Amino acid sequence: MNHSWNLAQPAKLGVLLIIAVLWLPACQTGDEPVSRSSSTTAENNRSETRTATISKNEVERLRALGYLDYSEERPQAPGEGTMFLDPRLAFPGLTLVIYSGSCSAELITLEGQIINSWSLKPCRRWDQAVLGLDGSLLVVGSQSDTDQPASEQARSGFLVKLSWSNDILWNRRLPAHHDIEMLPNGEMLVLLYDLRVIETIDRTAAVWDNTIGRLDSEGHLLEEISLFDILDAPTSDFSLQITGRGSNNGESWIDLLHCNELEIVGNTELASKHRIYSDDHLLVTSRSQDAVLVINWRTRELIWHWGPGQLSGPHSGIVIDNGNLLIFDNGLEREWSRVIELDPVSGRVVADFGPPDRSLFFSRVMGANQLLPNGNILITNSAGGQGLELTPEGQLAWMYMGTRRTEDGHRVKIPRMTRIPTATTMTIQSHLANSSSQESGENKQPG
Fold this sequence. Notes:
CATH superfamily: YVTN repeat-like/Quinoprotein amine dehydrogenase
Distance between the termini: 78 Å
Largest sheet: 6 strands, antiparallel
CATH architecture: 7 Propeller
Helix content: 10-25%
Strand content: 35-45%
Radius of gyration: 22 Å
CATH class: Mainly Beta
CATH topology: Methylamine Dehydrogenase, Chain H
């Protein structure tokens, strides 16, 4: 059944809203999500673009391209800062905005006011930043471009902890990349690179294995497990595709996994529904394998996987409250992106978010999504340097355009935006106030 709603918005936003407003979720009623749009033209556009594919060689070229510092692919919308806000619909709180190429982050209000900012120099790229309850910022980044020789990239990763006032609390040189997951005991799980020769894959080109490192609260490595070894184990039913070949200065490598998201599955109350639900299980998103994977990081075995033939270069697979997965499907072979909700028990896509004209939304790299407590979805259009908050019905609640630019005027990519609930920001504010009070007391001279 088709549904329609009023998507009228202020005309002054013009072409910006052509890209941002007309987002439509589709509900699953059969093998394909069925559009709720009442527009025949919009549905025709969706049908035409859904089947459009590019050659395998072109997909490989897109995979092999390094990360640019700035927005790319599509003509980008004008403006910067908060471009639209409906306070009745938007989920309240602050938003952490990460700027990849400028190695910086800003904590902003819905209106776009900067509450705090962090940066680091010298630096080449930030992949992820996590805001702590003490106001500190934990950052995963790199000193090297992805088009540099593999040996250089392997040495360039880092994990750094910055204070609220942007002081370096500690800095660890690790081959870290893309994501970090905080554990309840204060330890951390982080994605790491391991450059190795795997003769069953290629006798000459080194393979970028992705490993999961367990770190203590100060960022020291405690243990490391290989994702390749898990996927290649005799007990695994996963079929690896040999993809992600790259080269530079005579050196060849294979970015076989390119994992970019790491999250504890949890939801143990759902364990009777499916075996993926456990505190010992991790959901890992692999761009190169077009897959989301669930592994038991204690027993080091593959539990479940989904995606090949359905996803294309995905990012940001996360678990939401109902046990379903929210995934940013970049759509390399289609050249348009979408955000889907997947029921892992049935393997069905139960919701599919994207504009009616799919060609308007394509993020070749990066991309993120966050389900907010009020049911809204915060989508990071990384290649466009843009954030969109949508209601479950696809109505625009908030839109933000990145404010950082390169020297030649391109908008800097935003790998992730994260909405921080008001309760959390109040906890941070209280901690900072207590710390300031304690410092004042310690510095007070005796009378």
